[in-house]
Amino acid sequence: MSSNNDHVFIPMSQRDTNGPPGTTSNDLKMVTEGALLSFHNICYRVKVKSGFPLGRKTVEKEILMNINGIMRPGLNAILGPTGGGKSSLLDILAARKDPRGLSGDVLINGAPQPADFKCNSGYVVQDDVVMGTLTVRENLQFSAALRLPTTMTQHEKNERINTVIQELGLAKVADSKVGTQFIRGVSGGERKRTSIGMELIIDPSILFLDEPTTGLDSSTANAVLLLLKRMSKQGRTIIFSIHQPRYSIFKLFDSLTLLASGRLMFHGPAQEALGYFASTGHHCEPYNNPADFFLDVINGDSSAVVLNKEYEDGEGKETEKPSKRDKPLIEKLAEFYVISAFFRETKVELNQLSEVQKKNKNVAFKEITYATSFCHQLRWISRRSFKNLLGNPQASIAQIIVTIFLGLVIGAIFYDLKSDAMGIQNRAGVLFFLTNNQCFSSVSSVELFVVEKKLFMHEYISGYYRVSSYFFGKLLSDLLPMRMLPSIIFTCITYFLIGLKAEVGAFFIMMLTLMMVAYSASSMALAIAAGQSVVSVATLLMTISFVFMMIFSGVLLCSEELIHTSHPQKEIIKPEYQLLI
Fold first, then answer.
1. Which intervals of the chain are annotated as region Disordered (predicted)?
2. What is the per-residue burial (b if ≥16 Cβ within 10 Å, else e) of 429-454?
3. Tally of helices (H runs) and strands (E runs) in the chain
4. I want to staple 365 with a disulfide (CB 3.0 to 4.6 A). Which of 3, 114, 297, 469 is the partner?
């Protein structure tokens, strides 16, 4: 068996703020002047449904159980197997979890988290949520325009943006598009750094990251962690979850929090974790990655597990086979940690911070306030949405081309209709088709909304803008160019080719009617898309809804033959069709 010396760790930055248990009161005072985050007796339960659809029962599932710890300035890693509670703990510390089922306290420098903590701290989600049709600089400009105070001049904001670009090593790609599935953009590592830059714009003292190495190759992942390490040396408290880092990444950690099945296995300096596990009877083999070793021990499939202390001391006595009544290994490790010196020292510091909280319990925190006004947010959201439309040819330019093509085809088929009995029947048919065409063309608004949903949720929670600003910004950017312009083009082509009434008033009535149909259908599409996360599902639901409206509109079947319950289904198509007639 190897000793802890088989693994060499790089020196920690600010060793006094990330040292072993036993930090002196002077050290604690120095830390509390910075960004020190502590969490006390965190428990989190959720209600889940189980069983068959007709007989489902709601059961309570415990996600986290009595989690305690302190995150100091430096690189604080939360490690554990899948489903261990890493992301849940991270979201709770970042104040981004539903408080229902949550108990315990999270303190910042001994005081409760302020209401605007989500706005003042940085949070980088696992899936990079940046606008791919914009350049790296434009994404950072958007963050700066909405999150920095209006008291800062534009020159100061530009300097902040340039500083972040230089700090993250993005100077060469600053004016390159981030990239989408249709546009080739920057690399995965540069995209991740752009996401980090969006949060660094506000210069947060605490930065949260949810599995920042996911989807990156080993070299790029190592570069991202080296960047975070350099940032932590500037005094930032960086807290992140990670699944299975390689050794070159693991040795960068200052603090390690090890979770399994919602229980705390270890919390303390990362370089002392191997020694702690050795004291529990679990030794890491030479040249083995400590992170892999910890996960193997928790999962019970490590060849290095030695449960008998006598064997560890060299007596060589074989261990007895565990009986069925023995506790699971995770419970044993959790109980061992509770009686360890690491936990005792952590509890002493937590009690000190709790005393500070009692003194600050009457401190009033301001309510959440946005850095910018409604009009300022509306202007920037509309501007970005317009750019995004232009950068998505499949949803903007393609729709204009399809509109022109369909207009010419319909005009050719129904060219110069006569006023006899057959012509009147053909006119009724083409007007019904024009109305339905506007409905089905509005389905394109679903895609951009569903794709942007994750982006909206992240930006709204982070305090970029109000919901109303985003809503009206989307309306302006979608209704004006994507509903009004195609309706105008469609009317101009079909009206004269079909040979409808040669009157100015009739022409504009038809144009306005088709616009109203497009607006109504687009609003319905957005409403359905708001509850869906998959584009294909939202599109399918929209298509089904429009088909029912078409059937029950009273045009294909006499109204007297329809049942009363079908009447709401014809509210979009029938009134507009009657207006055109």
1. 1-24
2. ebbbebbbbbbebbbbbbbbbbbbee
3. 22, 10
4. 114
